[in-house]
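User: Good morning. I'm curious how 5-O-phosphono-beta-D-ribofuranosylamine would be positioned relative to this chain. Could you predict the structure with it bound?
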Amino acid sequence: MVILGVLASGSGTNLQSIIDAIESKKLSARINVVISDNPGAYALERAKRHGLKTEVVTKDEYPEKEAFDGKLVSILKENGVGLVILAGFMRLLSPLFVRAFPMKIMNIHPSLLPSFTGLDVQKKALDYGVKFSGCTVHFVDEGVDTGPIIIQAVLPVAANDTPETLKKRILGEEHRIYPQAIQLYSEGRLTVKGRRVTVKDGGGQEGTLENPPVCIFKDE
Ligand code: GRF
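Assistant: Good morning! Here's the predicted structure, ligand included:
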């Protein structure tokens, strides 16, 4: 079973989807610590409600980037974390952090990478006029939203979509694919070679708009 440390700055709906998947035994993982840089993050409330350990590390306490990241790394290591989950964590990680957990950090991003990196990406996608958008779970490397892609889910953009409506629909997909990606990791089924992540026994891709097929959660 993989031991998770979750980093979140905001509302924590992705954290919630991971907690729910663990509690309903779809996801074989344990969350040993939830860390936030924002003392007011609702993600912390969600964690506490489920009896999870929480820590707050602020940039006021650790204004130097390296010291801030060093503190995060030490909390994660002390808590025996094997896989770091970024769930709406609003700070970029330094190379020091990334090198402490090589290919052991996952992030979820609300676009089909490599399109639309950074912030406000639902608006960027609409302004560009794409017909499909979606979300991406990827391993984290030293770039911004550039690491090897694990799962993407695709959805059509509606003519009357606003950034808010698109965000909401994408979030629904995020809540499905993030626990799936972690479960694949937990089962030891992910192999990274260069930029390519392969899924052992992942099944065929033809005719689907989601990879790998959603059936990895047996009762879906
Ligand atoms: C999500 O849109 C995720 O893709 C992005 O940050 C947001 C976090 O939302 N990385 P939540 O805090 O999980 O609700």
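The helical segments are 13-23, 42-49, 65-78, 95-100, 121-128, 163-186. The CA atoms of residues 43 and 215 lie 28 Å apart.
Let me know if you'd like a different ligand tried.
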